[in-house]
C-alpha cells in the first residue's frame, strides 16, 4: 500500500509541475523575445550540463541501492573499493552526496544570475526561472531528507528486512520522479528556443 500511495502522491506532484510548465510557456509566449534572449544568454551551460549529468547518474546509484535493498543487504561486504559488494547504505550515501552537489550547483547558478541582475522581481524570465527551478530544488532537498531517513532507519534496524526495502523503493520512486522532472526542465529552459 505504501508503494501505491507514493505513486498516487507523485501523480499529484506531476500535476503541480504541469502547472509550472504552463506558467513557463505562458510567460514565454507573452514576453519580449529580446528580454528572454538576453536572460537566457546569461545561463551557465557548462555548469548546468555537469549538474544535470550528476543528477541523472544519481538515479543509477539510487537504483543500485534499491537492488541491494532487494537482497536485504544494508552494508557493504568487503572493501569500500569493491563496488560490487556495496549495500544500500553505500549506494544511498553516494546518491545523497550527488544530490547535494546538484543543489550546490543550482545555488551557484542562482548567485551568478543575481550578480547579473536577473531577479525574480524584475523580469518575466527571472520569475519563471526561479519558480520552476526553485520548486524543483525544494523537491530535491525533500529527496535528500528522505535518503537521510532511509539511511538512518537502515542503521537502526537490527535486521534489514521488508520494511526497509519498501522505504528504499518509495524513496527511489520519488528520486526518479525528481530526476525526470529536471530532464524536462533542462530541455525546456536551456535548449528550447
TrEMBL record:
InterPro entries named in the record: Cyt_c/ubiquinol_Oxase_su3, Cyt_c_oxidase-like_su3, Cyt_c_oxidase_su3-like_sf, Cyt_c_oxidase_su3_a-hlx
Protein name, entry field: cytochrome-c oxidase
Entry's Gene Ontology BP terms: aerobic electron transport chain
Do the record's keywords include Cell membrane?
yes
UniProt source species: Serinibacter arcticus
> Which GO molecular-function terms appear in the entry?
cytochrome-c oxidase activity
Which top-level group of life is the source organism from? Bacteria
| Family recorded in the similarity comment | Belongs to the cytochrome c oxidase subunit 3 family.
CDD domains, per this entry? Heme_Cu_Oxidase_III_like (cd00386)
Q: Which reaction does it catalyse?
A: 4 Fe(II)-[cytochrome c] + O2 + 8 H(+)(in) = 4 Fe(III)-[cytochrome c] + 2 H2O + 4 H(+)(out)
Q: Report whether Cell membrane shows up as a keyword of the record.
A: yes
EC code(s) of this entry: 7.1.1.9
